[in-house]
Amino acid sequence: MGHHKLGVVPSGVELGAAITLSAVVVKEARYKRLCKSKKILTVNGKFPGPTLHVHKGDTILVDVYNRGIYNITIHWHGVKQPRNPWSDGPEYITQCPIKPGHRFTEKVIFSEEEGTLWWHAHSDWSRATVHGAIVIHPKHGTSYPFPKPLGEVQLIFGEWWKADVMQVYRQFMASGGAPNISDAYTINGQPGVLYPCSKRDTYKLKVEYGKTYLLRLVSAAMNEILFFAIANHNLTVVGADASYTKRSTNDYVAIAPGQTLDCLLHTNQNPNHYYMAARAFTAGPIAFDNTTTTAILQYNGNYTPSSSPSFPSLPYYNDTSSAYNFIFSLRSLVSENHPVYVPIHLKKRLESTIAIKTFPCYPNGTCQGPNGTRLAASMNNISFAIPQRFDILEAYYYHINGVYKKNFPSFPPFVFNFTEDYPPLYLNTPKRGTEVKVLKYNSTVQMVLQGTNLVAGLDHPMHLHGFSFYVVGWGLGNFDKHNDTKNFNLVDPPFRNTAIVPRKGWIAVRFKASNPGVWFMHCHLDRHLTWGMDMAFIVKNGKSPQTSLLPPPPDMPPC
Ligand code: C2O
Ligand code: CU
User: Which PANTHER family match (predicted)?
Assistant: First the structure.
């Protein structure tokens, strides 16, 4: 089927010239894990999929072929795609899906991102196996803000079900309850030695003694935040979500679905073999996959390895203080070459609750949610309904009525003690709707994301398409605009595309709406996304053609 290579465009070339074609072929392939073989959806037959290498500022064209049996879209997670939501990917938000047998040529426009991102399917739950890393190298002639490592490697975390993922998804949709938990986590597609039939294929990273390596961590897990550590070794975080951070040395990290972390690893321990391991961080009152995935760090050279590699100590599953100590310790690198632009004078203040909710069961149905209800989720009490016939971007661009409404509330419609132990039950049922928030071009926005304890208080990794935002504050309990604002970090806050809202707590994020388009925001735990913990922004055009949406590509998939 020709060469399915992901192409690299030399940077520094004029746009228009700086384009090469590469191809992504979505198709089924047979994979065996946990002693059981099944067909999974892949890109180019690979799981995880191929890594896309680019340089900062490149623009590339990718031909996405759907040779699978389901509708599909591909999202370039964390790529801001200035003025080009057409290739962003979320199904029925910015495009209709690519049908089996069809093709869509996507223009992926990189701008300020540098470091690690990833791409994934953005339709039903196919991203479980349809994903891969994006490595954004510094521009030619520039270098990392840290000494050049001897080697670089991606570590992609995933979640594996023995059953067909589409089956898991359908059953989940039909049951009204929580989805079946996964059977394993994976590192670069392999579960590791603690699972059946997995020992031989465990991922192994071979290193030289006394060097530095750059580990590019990507969490493609579906429904859990993970702790990760390497026995006897520290991880020095230098970047997160394709933005550099101040160096921060840790003996474990926490990473949520959607996030990436660039870490330096110093191979300064006795030459030996060591386990790396990841397992869930989850503090809520719900069932989760409590298994542990492993890989091996192995020093080259002549030595007698210990009979069994030593195992890292990971924080306990519900160790929120270890999780938050790590998560909220990250700071942006601030330097001449890496300035930060935290919005100070705000044009728009938004606050949204994020909540697990319930609907009454379908008429005559049986539902597995609490007390026979159907589980749901919401932002500002609206459980987002993904359109089914048109996508929002198309409806916006061509003025098609009836696809979405512009009434996403700027503040929580009900004010209560959001994080108390037993919030009033009548608040459990949300409205349903496709409500967007319209923002003026270049307005400076602050959004407070307030966790609630309705139905189940949990941590939520919230992701915004089209932007990264500065996480200027966080706290436990309810956000207090008078006192909490005083403590905001406007100097070196982390610049992320996915940030964890702590359980029964809040975060405040700021961004400048300088990217016209339709941009989805949602929890990156897929069960919550599916339940409606979502909303979308429409950022209007600026005054000039250079500050307006690009025209749609000629081959947008028809709805
Ligand atoms: Cu990683 Cu809406 O996506
Ligand atoms: Cu969530």
Answer: LACCASE, MULTI-COPPER OXIDASE
